[in-house]
Amino acid sequence: MIGSPGTGKTLLAQRLSTILPPLSQEESLETTRIYSAVSRLDANQDLVLLRPFRSPHHTISEAGLVGGGSIPAPGEIRLAHNGLLFLDELPEFNRRTLEVLRQPLEENCVTISRASGSMTFPSNLMLVAAMNPCPCGFRGDPRRQCKCNPMQIDRYLGRISCPMFSISI
Description:
CATH topology: Rossmann fold
CATH superfamily: P-loop containing nucleotide triphosphate hydrolases
Strand order of the largest sheet: 1-4-7
Low-confidence stretches: none
Strand content: 15-25%
Shape: globular
Order of helices and strands: HHEHEEHEHHEEEHH
Number of domains: 1
CATH architecture: 3-Layer(aba) Sandwich
Number of helices: 8
Radius of gyration: 18 Å
Largest sheet: 3 strands, parallel
């Protein structure tokens, strides 16, 4: 989604997860296992019943997004399994961090490799991203004047690699 600040991009992304079909029993069990493994279930919660909505900050590391550690722990991609991963302010994310999304989106799994071996986990998720149309945020806005020059806009939009836009889900 591309739009000026305050146009509701984040609100729309948050609501999107609520109109997705309910988790099946199998999806609910898978999601519960993931959240239980990282101690993210509420004390009175036995089963995850709602689709996950994950919205990491743009400063997240590659390992934070994919997962990792000496004993591989799930990252945001894995925590969004059976749900929605929302990347707000997409051009602010590190380009290499965005590139690690390609394999999980194309193959619906994430692989974490370590010296002791490699582990592959399912990561069936919906990716939703939002960004402003330019650095100041007001390009094309009928109420506010954009202060960006064409070179600033090109540099801003160039932060997102072309392969990210060619992924079809």
